[in-house]
Specification:
It contains 2 helices and 9 strands; from the N terminus they run E-E-E-H-E-E-E-E-H-E-E. It is α/β, with parallel strands linked by helices. The protein has 2 domains: 41 residues, no CATH class; 95 residues, GMP Synthetase, Chain A, domain 3 (2-Layer Sandwich). The protein has a 3-stranded antiparallel β-sheet with strand order 1-2-3, with no helix packed on it. The chain has a 3-stranded mixed β-sheet with strand order 4-7-9, covered by helices on one side. Strands 5-6-8 form a 3-stranded mixed β-sheet.
Length: 152
Amino acid sequence: MQETRFEGTLQWHGQSPDIAFDYDHFNRLATLSFAGGASVEASAASSFKGDDTLLNPETFMLASLMHCHFLTFMSIAAKSRAPIAAYSDSAVGTLAMKDGKTRYVEVTLRPKVRFVNEADAAKLASLHEKAHQNCFMGNSVNFEIKVEPELG
């Protein structure tokens, strides 16, 4: 594969000068924008004084891993001629202190798959294993990613 670049911008919304600029009070709201026009309002997680109704770096990481595994799985299933009727995932990411730093220490993906042809269900584990091995986002992190697939 040739090198591919991705670009984005972050614009902080600033804050009123009458609000103290300290750890407990600074505004954590920003807009993230990307090529093609996609943009999203983001904050910090509430555990870091942010707004849980908005996406945050931790949820972006989890979303990135889920979506990459999904797209890789679907590509492998398509190339294996194992059509998929339904796919969902219910993932959990664990942030903890490790080596003196707060970091992701584990993510568990729980994809639920329904095949068009019931006979393809025997391929579930091998397709997910190939997806896990080839998901470039998963290959880019330094923590364990568990995949616990089931038929659905």
